[in-house]
């Protein structure tokens, strides 16, 4: 029997636009486990809607009486609760390595990508979220209108930061080895953040990271490739 799961998932003004990198980690983890969840669109200022989780951010996964927040904690919950399904980590011995990759993506890629994506995201979110989004993001990254002037430098910075991935993916198809695992989804979520919200070309077509991203876009029947993207743009 397929378990009943509910996922609170960040959405834009268009409820079909689901662009959170952390929620995408969870989407891919669920698909890897062969699980589906009812998704509930959630917006930045709807804090009360997830108040039952004891915190204010998505993703939030509900499974019966269990409520789990934070994409890494959700991955661990899925692994421990459904051990008979394909492993996200390749065994308990590899879980710490996946956690390292997840932390690397969050601390290295998020700050660079945020400076590339925030102005576009501001135009895609619900009107009720715009003041909150501007105030919280400008506190960390400066005026949204000033960010595009640095796009060329930020893209160069991103490509340099991807060198460890490039070297690894030049020798094997996935970070986890011959098949994808949570280490891959931790980084891929960042690229879905960009794909859903921005027209910027972040990768060259001959980059091994580009080929890896294409493979993951096609994984699980093209789950990620079918996702809604920013209107009237070529996905990054």
Concise description?
The protein has 236 residues and is an alpha+beta fold. It has eight helices and four strands.
Write the layout of secondary structure elements.
Blueprint: E1 5-10, H1 21-32, E2 38-42, E3 60-63, E4 66-69, H2 71-81, H3 95-124, H4 127-141, H5 151-161, H6 163-169, H7 182-197, H8 208-222
Parallel strand pairs: 1-2
Antiparallel strand pairs: 1-3, 3-4
Describe this structure in words.
This protein folds into 2 domains: 5-81, Glutaredoxin, CATH 3.40.30; 93-218, Up-down Bundle (Glutathione S-transferase Yfyf (Class Pi), Chain A, domain 2). The chain has 8 helices and 4 strands, in the order βαβββααααααα. It has 236 residues and is an alpha+beta fold. It has a 4-stranded mixed β-sheet, with helices on one face. The protein has helices spanning 21-32, 71-81, 95-124, 127-141, 151-161, 163-169, 182-197, 208-222; strands at 5-10, 38-42, 60-63, 66-69. 50% of the residues lie in helices and 8% in strands.
- Strand order in the sheet with the most strands: 2-1-3-4
> Helical residue percent?
40-55%
Domain tally: 2
CATH level 1 class label of the largest domain: Mainly Alpha
Task: Give the percentage of residues in beta strands.
Answer: 5-15%
Would you tell me which CATH topology of the largest domain applies? Glutathione S-transferase Yfyf (Class Pi), Chain A, domain 2
Q: Could you say what the CATH architecture of the largest domain is?
A: Up-down Bundle
The separation of the N and C termini measures 38 Å
What is the number of helices?
Answer: 8
Task: Give the total of beta strands.
Answer: 4
Q: How would the global form be characterised?
A: globular
Element pattern in H and E: EHEEEHHHHHHH
Report the C-alpha radius of gyration, rounded.
17 Å
> What does the largest sheet look like?
4 strands, mixed
Structural category is alpha+beta
Unreliable residue runs: none
Q: Mean of residue pLDDT?
A: 96
